[in-house]
Design goal:
The complex is a heterodimer of chains A (459) and B (227). Chain A is mainly β and 459 residues long. Helix content of chain A is 3%, strand content 14%. Chain A contains two helices and 17 strands. In chain B, 55% of the residues are buried. The chains are: A mainly beta (459), B mainly beta (227).
Chain lengths: 459, 227
């Protein structure tokens, strides 16, 4: 049940650019990515392929990004699939499948070209089948020590290249949530299923839905805060399994955004002592399994500070949370903990609504640089020096050309944020009349959608 | 909602994370825009890929074949003015309005809801056993005059906050309801006057509840939708 794509590493919206080939490349053919992978896998010459996901055209390629005179380039029409063996800088098992470009031994000696028989004569000559290219480290005789080469030193015939095993090449910290290595087999040796496929196992971890979890190809990952990285397997009888990955021996990194009185972001760094839910239920201790059984124990999650029964966020949920001491309520968020302020300090101040502010602040309250008022990118402005010539819309300074009651603002250089208010606060003593002082009676003249209230009919 | 009862609130939406878990409420003010509270979101430029709103259902976890259920991805978050604690969420496509999904009107700018107006909160949040937690619950709360509220809370009430009077029965919003509506019926219109924000204790019987006063930010809301 393995997919032929399992042997490939995918780069979205990317193509390989090469000088014109001689002979020219075969014409693209219509096929799905999996069919293309099957064709490339059985072709000795093929090392990669482009797949146009719109037209379903596929072009086999004899090179990879590591080939001479080849470069990667963004192209939204293509996905690039490259054979993993040509990209790995680590080895699987004895490394006999290693096809990387390491050309130096573990002691720093340059490797002799396989095609050459000097300074060392040998019988391992290149052929289309054996991968003995250039002077790259290889393991043509299944040496237990892994890939090796003949050296250019006449006194040292051959030497191991000391290439690490993939499970040791990249270590993991804590529970491996940040692990981005290339292990693609489970601890029992079963191959992993690709994250972008739904067979043999359907699953909710679509790479596009979890862009920050690194769900690339079929590599072991930890998108759900399990104890360690895992993957769905190609065995239909075994849905998922943990992977064996070395724990880093270096000092554990300190979590980002450690706070106590408030929380930032999702509160993964929150280390305060709130231990009651907003509805007044005490939190369950993390080291307890009653009333709720769970796997978030302090020993298994040493980086998450699961002390006592404090609100914590060990799994990247929306906010700190806890299991509750009430059997009918398993989990409660601790949204009642304040969020830490995340705005820039005010650099200047304005009077009224800031409609006459002509200062030089040119950053938003979040620190994003303002877009020049006369510019058309990244946002096409509805208000500009041409539409509002009297508003002093100079450079990219914060202004208030529409008398926005919330103060000076600007279009921003962030493509995702058309406009935002600026790092400017009302000057002290510059009070806008309270809304409560002029509470005129308002007659509603128009109406939204009338509610057709339904009688609740019970279950 | 604590102390409420099952009911209908067709502008109330359920906000779901990538795992499909409801974590906050919101209000549908335009076919493609929802208002909620900043407290529910990790940042103003949070990556909401995979996050969705669910509309048109009464059950918190309706079956996938529920004909009324609409599921729409969220594409963008826009944070409100400082201290507003509001966010607007843009949806990937417009919601279909029908008998189960409706817009709620926005109030006039800077409108002050008269004291004593009976308004309604709605949500799928914690009920503390007072109602069925698997369905949408609603509860009525009367608006409290600002002066009285300020006195009860020792001068800590801002203009940007709207108060409702505490009820002896203990009625109010709770976890899972945050971001949802305080809707007031005015001249045959349901108007979004407040947004539910987290408090330290749910449904207090001895203190008013605070909501974000939407009328102070109506200009910003229209500006965001226009921009």
């Amino acid at each position: 049940h393995r997919s032929p794509l399992n042997d490939f590493q995918r780069l979205r919206a990317t193509e390989l650019l090469a000088e014109p080939a001689d002979p020219p490349l075969p014409s693209p053919e219509q096929s799905s990515a999996e069919q293309c992978a099957r064709r490339c896998a059985t072709s000795l010459a093929c090392r990669a392929f482009h797949h146009d996901w719109q037209s379903q055209l596929c072009q086999l390629l004899p090179w990879t990004q590591h080939s001479p005179h080849i470069q990667l380039q963004k192209n939204i029409h293509y996905d690039l699939y490259q054979k993993k063996v040509f990209l790995r800088d680590c080895i699987v098992a004895d490394g006999s499948s290693y096809r990387g470009t390491r050309a130096m031994t573990e002691k720093g000696l340059r490797c002799q070209h396989w095609q050459s028989t000097t300074p060392h004569d040998h019988r391992f000559l290149p052929s289309p089948h054996n991968g003995l290219e250039e002077n790259y480290c290889r393991n043509p005789d299944w040496d237990k020590r892994g890939p090796w080469c003949y050296t250019v030193d006449p006194n040292i015939r051959h030497q191991s290249c000391g290439i690490k095993k993939c499970e040791d090449a990249v270590c993991m910290t804590c529970n491996g949530e940040d692990y981005r290595g290339t292990v693609d087999h489970t601890e029992s040796g079963t191959e992993c299923q690709r994250w972008d496929l739904q067979h043999p196992h359907k699953h909710p971890y679509h790479p596009h839905k979890y862009p920050d979890k690194g769900l690339d190809d079929n590599y072991c990952r930890n998108p759900d805060s399990s104890e360690r990285p895992w993957c769905y397997t190609v065995d239909p009888g075994r849905e998922r399994e943990y992977c064996r990955i070395r724990l880093c021996t270096e000092k554990r990194p300190r979590p980002l955004n450690v706070t106590t009185g408030c929380f930032r972001g999702k509160g993964e760094g929150y280390r305060g002592r709130v231990n009651v839910t907003v509805s007044g239920i005490p939190c369950q201790r993390w080291d307890a399994q009653v009333p709720h059984q769970h796997h978030f124990t302090p020993e298994k999650y040493p980086c998450k500070d699961l002390q006592e029964n404090y609100c914590r966020n060990p799994d990247g949920s929306e906010a700190p949370w806890c299991f509750t001491a009430r059997s009918t309520v398993r989990i409660a968020f601790c949204f009642h903990i304040h969020r830490c302020p995340d705005e820039l300090g005010a650099q200047e101040c304005y009077f009224g609504h800031g409609e006459h502010y002509h200062g030089l602040v040119s950053k938003t309250r979040k620190g994003i640089t303002c877009q020049p008022w006369a510019a058309q990118t990244p946002h096409v402005p509805q208000i500009s020096p041409f539409t509002h010539p009297e508003a002093h819309l100079e450079e990219n300074y914060c202004r208030n050309p529409d008398n926005d009651s919330h103060g000076p603002w600007c279009y921003t250089m962030d493509p995702r944020t058309p406009f935002d208010y600026c790092a400017i606060k009302p000057c002290s003593g510059s009070a806008v009349p309270s809304v409560l002082e002029n509470a005129d009676a308002v007659a509603f003249k128009e109406c939204g959608q009338r509610d057709e209230r339904l009688q609740y009919k019970g279950r | 909602i604590i102390g409420g009862q099952p009911g209908n609130s067709p502008w109330t939406v359920s906000i779901r994370n990538r795992a499909g878990v409801h974590f906050c409420g919101g209000s549908l003010v335009e076919e493609q825009w929802v208002i909620s509270t900043r407290q529910c979101f990790s940042s103003c430029d949070a990556d909401l890929m995979g996050y969705e709103v669910h509309l048109g259902m009464l059950f918190k976890d309706p079956g996938p074949k529920d004909p009324e259920l609409q599921t729409i991805p969220i594409t963008r978050i826009v944070c409100g003015p400082s201290e507003s604690q509001l966010v607007m969420l843009k949806l990937a496509r417009p919601a279909t309005l029908n008998r189960r999904v409706a817009l709620i009107c926005l109030p006039p700018e800077r409108y002050v809801v008269p004291a004593g107006t009976v308004c309604e909160i709605a949500g799928w949040g914690e009920t503390r056993g007072t109602a069925d937690g698997g369905v949408l619950n609603v509860a009525q709360l009367p608006v409290l005059a600002h002066g009285e509220c300020n006195a009860a809370l020792r001068g800590r009430v801002k203009d940007s906050e709207l108060c409702t009077a505490p009820l002896r029965a203990g009625v109010g919003a709770c976890e899972g309801d945050y971001g949802g509506p305080l809707a007031c019926l005015t001249a045959d219109c349901w108007v979004l006057e407040g947004v539910i924000t987290p408090s330290r204790v749910c449904a207090r019987t001895d203190q008013p509840a605070l909501f974000i006063r939407v009328s102070l930010y109506v200009d910003w809301i229209y500006k965001v939708m226009k921009m």
